[in-house]
Amino acid sequence: MIDRNRRNLIAGGLAAAAVWPGMGRARAARFKAYPFSLGVASGCPLPEGVILWTRLTFPEPPPPADPFAPLEVIQRAPVDVIWDVAEDEHFTRPVRSGTVRAVQEFGHSVHVPVAGLRPGRWYFYRFRAGDAVSPVGRTRTAPAQETMADRLRFAFASCQQYEQGYYAAYQHMADADLDLVVHLGDYIYERSWGGNLVRHHGSGWPARLDEYRARHALYRSDPNLQATHARFPWLVIWDDHEVINNYGDDNAPDAPAGERFLEQRRAAYQAWYEHMPVPPHGGGDFSEFRIYGQHGFGRLLGITLLDVRQYRTPAMVGGQGAAQADANSMLGAEQERWLEETLPGARARWNVIAQPTLLSERDLEQGEGRRYSLDGWDGYRASRRHLLDSIEAARLENPLIIGGDLHAYFAADVKRDFAQPKSETVATEFVTGAISSNAPGQKSLDVALAENPHLKLASREHGYATMTLTPDGGQCDFVTIEDRKDPASPASTTYSFALTSGQPGVNRI
Ligand SMILES: [Fe+2]
Questions:
Q1: Which tens digits make up the pLDDT trace of 117-150?
Q2: How far is the CA of 52 from the centre of ligand 1 (A)?
Q3: Do 182 and 235 meet the contact criterion of CB atoms below 8 Å apart?
Q4: In angstroms, what is the span from residue 158 Cα to ligand 1's centroid?
Q5: pLDDT less than 50: residues of the chain
Q6: How far does residue 172's CA lie from ligand 1's centre (Å)?
Q7: Which residue range or ranges hold the Phospholipase D N-terminal domain (predicted)?
């Protein structure tokens, strides 16, 4: 029996046996194929720490010559992974290192909380396992809590359907001068649609853990996406396509409702966790997985991440109108309460609320009458009211709303009462265009601009956005690529907006 195990281990991904399940320590392995093919990442920066991420991959084991061979042994072998953090990219000034065990249960992903670093500094990191060394990543800690940084700049991005375009936008982002990247969701897509695809998923809608894992791994195989992960720390939230289109809580229009869907959602959440630079999972089965939270960058910047999918009242089907929109909850009672309690403690000069989509109202009906997308905040008016009330009650300084999802760029004056164009502007909102997903027609954007005076820009380019903040002001730039079907498309800053502390509202330069 042992012999057969050993034979199959040698025939499979690991040339030397790493470990027998349940027996002893993992040993150094020689890999048949490079195990760090998904690259490295970092995220959730603190003044004295950061999360480091990688996930080891193994080639599919060859078909067994012996039908009774327990091939799963190969896949189950844990691997001890050494991580190194240094002040320089050649690791001549090492500062921290350690070992973490990558286990099959979490797809051999690792999430390392590194502590003991210095605030507001660049660091370099890598992983080693057996005879393999990962690419080198670079990351940056947050400024110290009491420090007012001279300047911080982050990029934000969303909607990267793999088949509809290349990630040229990420090639430019990787070269940009940034402290951080914020991803606002639709990191993967569960489905294919549209024509003129440039590459293919090669599989259908995922439902099981192995299928969601494979989809994430496919997206993450893109070298430009990997490069941007390796270059900056990220903050990440999800939208719907990380699970399935337009889902909310335990309900999705295109999936069986109830327990079967919750099983699918658990699988999707786990695969997301396994591929994101977020803190180690604390146990449990991913029935609930908290991603909302607040991230501080000294006295200059605070970023609040929201989850608008996991706890929402499932969206109305068929548009029953305003009555339900007034009752539905976008964030769920617990997250709303958390927000109410947390925002008053946010004492940064600039306070970013990061959520997946457009917060401001958007009437889609040309001329008389009103029509709304009920999957967005317009289907959850009471929740929007509550969020804006919480921002006001907390006396949040310079609130900035950022979002994505619409596959078009938007800039908006967030009004206390959208029905009254003269009502006070209480925040500034910027929505980034898609990295690669198909954009809506120009007509619908023209209608949105004509019907909603608080919307100051709606534009269907692709790319990302950057936010540059200083103690007194700043700038939001929409960085667009010429052609998402061109893997080497040039990029340029097409729209810029000035920010002045104490003066909310869109101010195009
Ligand atoms: Fe999207």
A1: 999 999 999 999 998 999 999 999 999 999 999 9
A2: 27
A3: yes
A4: 7
A5: 1-24, 62-63, 72-73, 317-320
A6: 20
A7: 38-141
DSSP class of 6: H
**pLDDT at residue 317, rounded to an integer:** 47
Residue 221 amino acid letter: S
Q: Per the structure block, which two tokens stand in for 38?
A: 């998904």
Q: What are 269's two structure tokens?
A: 């959440």
Residue type present at position 454: H
Q: Ligand 1 being an ion, which residues bring their Cβ within 5 A of it?
A: 159, 186, 437
Separation between Cα atoms, residue 374 and residue 319, nearest integer Å: 7
Please report how the helices 223-231 and 209-220 are oriented relative to each other, as an axis angle in degrees rounded to 10.
80
Candidate CATH numbers 3.40.50.720, 3.40.50.1000, 3.40.800.20, 3.60.21.70; the one for domain 142-500: 3.60.21.70
Beta strand 122-129 with 132-133 is antiparallel
The number of residues in the chain equals: 509
Please state the domain extents for the chain: 2-138, 142-500
CB 310 within 8 A of CB 249: yes
- What's the 236 CA to ligand 1 centre distance in angstroms? 15
Please state, as a whole number, how many other Cβ atoms lie within 10 Å of the Cβ of residue 3. Answer: 7
For residue 420, the CA-to-ligand 1 centroid distance in Å is 30
Question: Could you tell me if 307 and 236 are in contact, meaning their C-beta atoms sit under 8 angstroms apart?
Answer: no
Q: Check if CATH label 3.30.420.40 holds for domain 2-138.
A: no
Say what the pLDDT of residue 329 is: 93
User: CA 411, CA 459: separation in Å to the nearest integer?
Assistant: 9
pLDDT in the model for residue 490: 98
- Amino acid letter, 466: T
131: tokens are 């005879």
pLDDT for residue 23 = 41
Ligand 1 center from residue 435 Cα (angstroms): 9
